[in-house]
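Readers of this paper often ask what the protein records in our data store actually look like. Below, we set out a record of this kind in full and without editing:
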Amino acid sequence: MGYIAELRKLVGSRPLIMAGAGVLVLDGAGRLLLQKRVDNGLWSFIGGSMEPGETFEQTARRELWEEAGLEAGALRLLEVVSGPEFFYRYPNGDEVYNVGVLFLALEVRGSPRTDPSEGLELRYFGLDALPDLSPFEKAALPRVRERLLQVRCPV
């Protein structure tokens, strides 16, 4: 998070509008890959903030590689999320209003591996048996759940 860390040196913990991207990965059984976060111990999608000059898709691909060791093939846009329900105060006091673009990875290459600076664990969960989610995911999941179920069980 180089750009955001540099910005934080200038503005402290004041609220920022933070653009980012997330990647939802489903396994062959339709289970969702989640990461247990280092900063709050809760489960989240794979994703993070944009760096200057990146597109949302480039951010999604970079974050998937950095956080899970997976390379994305085709990506499908699932949802764009923003609004007051995406405000978050990090445990260190930093405040953000997230603007997120969520993608579904239609194909991935590699085996999931955890980046210890970002995540404690990676694991697949059934959509009906999700663990304790981070606030962003709690707010975003209702918007993408139906689309994920359609992918898992196409009509």
The longest helix spans residues 135-152. The mean pLDDT is 93. Strands lie at 16-25, 32-37, 43-44, 46-49, 71-72, 75-81, 87-89, 95-105, 108-109, 119-125.
